[in-house]
Amino acid sequence: MVKGFGNFAWLLRAGWLALGLCLPMAAHAQDGFSAGPLYDQFPLTLDSGHRTEAVGPFFYQQERDTEESWGIPPLFSRVTDPVTESKGYDLLYPLLTYKIYGREYQWQFCQLLSFSGGQNQAEVPRNQFTLFPLYFQQRSPDTNQNYTALFPLYGHLKDRLFRDDIFFVMFPIFSETRKRDMVTDNYLYPLFDLSHGDGMRGWQFWPVVGNQHKDVTTRTNGFGETEVVGGYDKSFFSLAVASEAGHRHRHRQPRKISGLDSALRRVAFAPARCNVRAVAVLQLD
Questions:
Q1: E-strand spans in 17-103?
Q2: What is the distance between the alpha carbons of residues 152 and 134, in angstroms, rounded to a whole number?
Q3: 229 contacts 218 by C-beta, under 8 angstroms
Q4: pLDDT given at position 273
Q5: How far apart are CA 243 and CA 238, in angstroms?
Q6: Element housing 2 (H / E)
Q7: Could you say which residues of the chain have pLDDT below 50?
Q8: For the purposes of burial, counting CB atoms within 10 Å of the CB of 199, is it exposed (0-12), middle (13-18) or buried (19 or more)?
Q9: Contact 235/205 with Cβ under 8 angstroms?
Q10: How far is CA 268 from CA 174, 206, 218, 262, in A?
Q11: 10 Å Cβ neighbour count for 136?
Q12: Looking at residue 10, what is its pLDDT?
């Protein structure tokens, strides 16, 4: 009997202690309610709306302007916005995602297998299929938008991988990329390339030597005015080879040097004096 009463008293004290801890946290805010990690509701500070969280980080629900979202991390989440006609679903993110924006859609699995489609800014429907990084495909009623690429054998891509156009044959033996007016032909990428476009031409044998020249050109700015774009000449060469030749020449025929030649030779001879074979690149504008 005494033992049972002692257990009851212990439970009573524990209950009063829990109540004492929860009551301060359950105080009503202006537009919210908080009960510690079990339940928390509060207004957003940077946007109009409110957010609700429960059971620590395992459930949330949020309304921000016209956007509504809720989730059970990391299992599932959903975001909708009727104004922008957008929806998004994540299942075991980033394992599987599905997103809709207006007439465009995309779903992907493990960032490797993906399907996407809809209409681009020119209102041209197209559908894409990607098995990264092996296979890329796009199909559209406008046959000029179609492409297929089987990496690394042969292929052509448009508006992919941060380039307007990509063409390759037996990569890295040959590839050609275009971004705006700049075209770059790569041979045994990244060892040798030729580039041209918009008054510019250049070449490089990486990382040994290279040269680039740009003529003075003009362009039209956002106000419809013509403005001048300056030209330039740039060259670079590796000092690794120059330091070896300069080191032997210095010991064979010492002489006094000065000015820029002296500064260049001090940089070139530094690896020899320190007995460290480091590669440095010097760019001359």
A1: 33-34, 39-43, 49-54, 59-64, 67-72, 76-81, 86-91, 96-101
A2: 7
A3: yes
A4: 40
A5: 9
A6: helix 2-25
A7: 1-5, 12, 16, 19-20, 22-30, 245, 247, 249, 251-253, 257, 260, 263-264, 267-285
A8: middle
A9: no
A10: 34, 19, 39, 10
A11: 22
A12: 55
Separation of alpha carbons 205 and 117, rounded Å: 40
Spatial CA neighbour of 276 closest among 250, 246, 243, 254:
243
Residue type, 204: Q
User: Which structure tokens are listed for 76?
Assistant: 């599932």
Q: C-alpha distances in angstroms, 264 versus 85, 139, 281, 282? A: 61, 55, 11, 9
Query: Are 187 and 193 a contacting pair, CB within 8 Å?
Result: yes
pLDDT of residue 165: 96
Write down the residue that tokens 């990486």 correspond to.
206
User: How high is the pLDDT of residue 55?
Assistant: 87
CA 4/CA 134 separation, integer angstroms: 71
Both tokens assigned to 89: 């679903």
Beta strand pairing status for 209-214 and 200-205?
antiparallel
Q: Note the pLDDT of residue 169.
A: 97
Structure tokens, 41: 């509701």
pLDDT in tens, 176-192: 999 999 999 999 999 99
Report the alpha-carbon distance of residue 218 to residue 94 in Å, rounded.
45
For residue 125, whether the previous peptide bond is cis, meaning omega lies within 30 degrees of 0, is: no
- What is the DSSP code string of 197-249? ETTEEEEEETTTEEEEEE--EEEE-TTS-EEEE--EEEEEEEHHHHHHHHHHH
What pLDDT shows up at residue 41?
A: 86
239-252 and 259-274 helices cross at what angle (nearest 10)? 90
**Residue among 70, 104, 120 nearest 90 (CA):** 70
